[in-house]
Fold this protein.
Amino acid sequence: MTKAEKRNFTIYAKRIQNKDSLKFMTLFEIIDKQNIFSEKTWTQGIQSAHFSNVKRHLYSQILSSLRLLHSQKDPQLKVKECIDFAQLLYQKGLYLESLKLLKKGYSWAEKLGLTKELLDIVALNKMIEARRITRTGFKENEKLIVLSSHLAAALQNETSLSNLNLAIHGWYITKGYAFTETDRQAISRAYAASLFDYDQQKLKKEPYQLLLQCKYWYAFIRQDYGAALHYAVEWVTHLTSKKEIGSHDPDLIMRSYHFILKAAYFTNDRKNYIYYFNLLEQFRKDQYDKFTMNSKVLSFIYVHHNRLNTPLLTNDFSNVEELISRTSLRIKRYAPMLDNHRLTVFNYKIACLYFIENDVQKCLEKLHKIIALQKNTLNKQILGYSRLLMMMCHYSLGNLEMIQYLLTPTKKSIQNLEYSNPFLVFCLDYFIQLLKQPLIEHKSLTATFYQKGIMHKQNQLLAGQFMNLDFNAWLYSILKQMSVKEAIAFHFNKR
């Protein structure tokens, strides 16, 4: 809780002066004084027999206080509160007053595109009209009937598209990209089977933006990054065309910008990347004072993720040390609210930058953290990249024996992927062949794989993977006996 939320809770709780309120306030004060969250010390001053009830009561009171505080800041909470108040007025027999409040709530919900809340308002309105004579007339009742039918259909569209969006996103998290024509056909069948007949022109704001998300993920999984970029830009344009949506759901705005940046990154589209990244940074700056804690966490994830990508896309590594330092501080701040997948991605991005900066030991430290979290990592592809980068580090240190030791778990990690990643197999094959060859043959083998890498970069289904791990730049650095940073600069100038 923030200081303002704690202060508001104290004022809110003191409105009740009885023994129970004193107990939960005592517990609140004990928790508030703790620097480290420890439930063992909470029972001090509270009888153990009543502790569970006091804790439950405190939790309920905190949530009620937070709702009261944030209902005026969160438009969606404000609409729901309006519905609750209208229900109370109805129960008190104030039917016309209840209808007036519902009309106001409907206006707010319509501006925000809240289909479910609109349907809830119409449902309560219909109930009042059906049970009481409110003198609104039959024509108004007919309007309610038509309106509820339209809203029900819109909600069905919204539900179907949100289900498809969740399913296709889940596909990406668990299976990754489609690398072969068989993989592409599999995702196409799954996508087509989940679509339904719709009139795109008649879709309301919420279903339409869900449709654009579905199209984005479908194109992204198929590695059609150009199409993904198109849908993401259309999505941002759709969201930012209505000012109300930005204040209603800033998280969605930031997510849409992040999707553009992902697609632009994999297509090496520096112009769009820089343009939309600046828009994301500006949006964050303008809205930050209004952000909830969840929005602040998401803004950190999206902004810092793309800040770490920027040097790789622009070949500007001048402020990498400062960038890593600032991101690391934010990771510590938000660590309790970050899942293992997010931590893994950040650790991998930072490890790549350390490797480029030739700080191999720090790179290995980050990679060991990723391996330690491997059981809780959703995207198994990143473990393959991490293990390969670890082998690249040990090659740079001349530890061929360590590469031999790491080969088996790396091979197992890559071969056990549900959908085979040809890029990871290509990189792994290099190390397998390397260990079979005498030292004198290593340069020739590296040159052969470098040429193969050039061919892979021309393959649409593999080109984007070099943005996750620039294996070819590393091979070139070995051949030319230069730093990885210099090799990246060489390839950057050839683009």
Residues 380-495 form one domain.
